[in-house]
Design a protein that fits this description.
The chain is α+β, with helices and mostly antiparallel strands. The protein contains ten helices and five strands; from the N terminus they run H-H-E-E-H-H-E-H-H-E-E-H-H-H-H. A five-stranded antiparallel sheet has the order 2-1-5-4-3, with helices on both faces.
């Protein structure tokens, strides 16, 4: 039974709150990604030190062979996405032949006619890429959904299976600290603008959005300004 993208994301997220096998979770996620994107296969490359590419997993032997080729030759959609930190889409065989003439015969013989790849990026660092293979031309590539699956895969990769009590406490304390400064900023804005706290929070969100900053960082600036004035 085909699951929805939301169900696929929820299933992956649910594994992160308990002990999990990273490779197993990613294999399931890749299958869900292919299903959600109406594709027939998916694979994943990881970027190692010194720019080396290695295959982590794939949903089929045909996809695995294509990932191995890309890792070895450093050419193809997944290799490009992993080394440029940008999504790569080829909507038909003509596009694939034009961009990767050496890879095109392998893609065609595997029964695929279109590909898309999305980088796994984490705080400015590229960890690899997710590759999806289609057996029909892409009229409207689902770039956002493909990248969403790549982002979830990144979270699976970087989320530790175990955290010490001290680390967990520190994370909770940091979250509560952020909430505290936001409440303080709401109070400052409510007083200065003579508005309700609800309106003050809306103003805080607006300032954060327009300033291109986080809500917590914006709140800290408001509180700092209040104390210094």
């Amino acid at each position: 039974m085909k699951i929805t993208p939301l169900q696929a994301m929820a299933r992956a997220a649910s594994t992160l709150v308990s002990d999990h096998d990273v490779t197993d979770v990613l294999a399931r996620l890749l299958a869900d990604a292919a299903d959600s994107l109406d594709a027939c296969a998916a694979g994943m490359l990881l970027l190692r030190p010194h720019g080396l590419l290695e295959v982590l997993t794939a949903t089929s032997h045909r996809a695995l062979d294509l990932e191995l080729y890309q890792a070895q030759e450093r050419r193809g959609p997944c290799a490009e996405a992993a080394t440029t930190d940008a999504s790569v889409v080829a909507t038909d065989l003509a596009s694939i032949r034009d961009r990767w003439p050496d890879l095109a015969p392998l893609v065609e013989s595997a029964g695929y006619v279109a590909v898309q790849a999305h980088p796994l990026h984490w705080h400015g660092q590229v960890l690899g890429a997710l590759n999806v293979f289609h057996d029909r031309e892409l009229l409207s590539p689902a770039d956002d959904l493909g990248q969403a699956f790549a982002d979830v895969a990144t979270l699976v990769l970087v989320t530790p299976t175990q955290l010490s009590t001290r680390t967990l406490t520190a994370l909770v304390d940091a979250a509560l600290s952020g909430r505290t400064v936001i409440e303080q900023a709401k109070g400052v804005l409510a007083y200065r603008l003579a508005v309700s706290t609800e309106q003050a929070y809306t103003e805080l969100l607006r300032r954060a959005r327009e300033g291109g900053s986080s809500v917590t960082a914006t709140a800290r600036l408001i509180v700092r300004d209040a104390y210094s004035s």
